[in-house]
Design goal:
By secondary structure, the chain is an all-alpha fold. The chain folds into two domains: 196 residues, Clc chloride channel (Orthogonal Bundle); 172 residues, Clc chloride channel (Orthogonal Bundle). 71% of the residues lie in helices and 0% in strands. The protein is built from 16 helices and no strands. The longest helix has 45 residues. It is globular, with a radius of gyration of 20 Å.
Length: 406
């Protein structure tokens, strides 16, 4: 009995040490990445002519991945695949490519995020270490889960949601319990490292006061349904754009170049510069009760950006889309637009990622605990309404009681 406890303690301690290094590396990279994207946003706002370089930026990003990172353009989907398939090692150049190409995408105004990039930054330094240490396939998979947790938790500043997200996203409908300690360790360390560097992240107001009643519950359920359906439409539209360009344009670098030209035309014709980049200010306005934001614009620009081949991630654009959709839905249903915007923001993310539990914790960490019931209603409804159709095509679905997997 004592021997078994000692072995278990040694096993846990080993993973705490390994995951601490993963989290520290993820935190340092996330801090540098946040600073880089803040610089790109300030520069783009000050040098408005940079939008005219969107086609050039697309050509640079496409060429970089075509000639230097063939296959790495799959990004987070590739990481999730390697947790289960173990068909190739993820190289360090994934981190280099995603950092540089995300900055270029943001600088010229593509509608992309940063969370997906943070996961790839972490995985790009973690998998080579696993290879050097000679870890077996199972341990390597746990290290990748820890990298996802460290990347998400550090770049958003949500250590609990970051860990739960990593545990939940690696397989739809099943949590990897063996990776719990590494995931929480990496996410907590990563978030702490970013905080220690003094890098600032967006902060939001707390949930406004509300009375829980059947009336607000059904309204929130309607919002969850709307978020799930919009998330499913986003996945389909992005896939359609990607597949169409792949069939029509054989040379990969030309796809984001064409996408950049289309983005340029759409943004200028619609005067939609506010919807470029992260657009977090639009979400903040919705959280203050504004219903002026147009969620279809943000989701269109994001689908075109990601589908054409720009990189950076999709979480923040989806977060903003959900906030704008939530404010509009709340106003339509005679609810509090600010409250609905907060719930909508995290519901849209959780629906698109197939991570309802992580969405609940994300909302709690960003906006406070009083809205947990509303978050649960919306996130579960959103998850069900997507039909498990998420942004990561390589995300496997858990086996049912029969033991069979999709």
């Amino acid at each position: 009995m004592t021997r078994a406890l000692l072995d278990r303690a040694a096993h846990v301690a080993r993973w705490v040490v390994l995951a601490s290094f993963v989290g520290a590396g993820a935190g340092l990279l996330s801090a540098a990445f946040i600073e880089a994207l803040d610089w790109t946003a300030r520069t783009r706002d000050g040098e408005r002519w940079l939008i005219w370089l969107l086609p050039v930026a697309g050509l640079i990003v496409g060429s970089a991945y075509h000639y230097l990172g063939r296959g790495l353009e799959r990004g987070t989907g590739l990481i999730i695949e390697q947790i289960h398939a173990h068909s190739r090692w993820i190289p360090v150049r994934m981190s280099v490519l995603i950092f540089v190409c995300s900055a270029i995408s943001h600088l010229c105004g593509a509608s992309v995020g940063r969370e997906g990039a943070a996961l790839q930054l972490a995985a790009g330094i973690t998998d080579p270490v696993s290879k050097r240490l000679g870890l077996d396939q199972r341990d390597r998979a746990v290290m990748l889960v820890a990298a996802i947790a460290g990347g998400f938790g550090s770049v958003v500043g949500v250590p609990v949601a970051g860990a739960v997200f990593a545990l939940e996203v690696q397989r739809t409908g099943r949590v990897d319990h063996e990776a719990i300690v590494p995931a929480f360790t990496a996410s907590i360390i990563g978030a702490a490292v970013v905080r220690a560097t003094g890098v600032s992240r967006a902060e939001y107001a707390s949930f406004p006061a509300f009375d829980w009643s059947p009336g607000i519950t059904w309204r929130i359920a309607v919002l969850g349904l709307a978020c799930g359906l919009v998330a499913a439409c986003y996945v389909s539209l992005t896939g359609f754009i990607r597949d169409t360009l792949s069939r029509a344009v054989r040379w990969m670098p030309a796809r984001p170049m064409i996408g950049g030209a289309l983005l340029l035309a759409i943004v200028l014709l619609g005067d939609w510069r506010d919807y470029q980049g992260l657009s977090l200010h639009l979400a903040s306005q919705a959280f203050d009760g504004s219903v002026a934001g147009q969620w279809p614009v943000k989701i269109l620009l994001t689908s075109l950006s990601i589908g054409a081949g720009f990189v950076g991630g999709e979480v923040i654009p989806l977060f903003v889309t959900g906030a704008l959709l939530g404010a509009s839905t709340g106003h339509f249903l005679d609810g509090d637009p600010a409250l609905f915007a907060m719930v909508g923001a995290v519901t849209m993310v959780s629906a698109a990622l197939n991570t309802p539990v992580a969405g609940i914790f994300l909302g709690i960490e960003l906006f406070g605990g009083p809205g947990v019931v509303l978050l649960a209603v919306a996130c579960v409804t959103g998850y069900v309404s997507t039909g498990q159709k998420g942004i990561y095509a390589s995300q496997p679905v858990a086996a049912h009681k029969s033991g069979r997997r999709d």
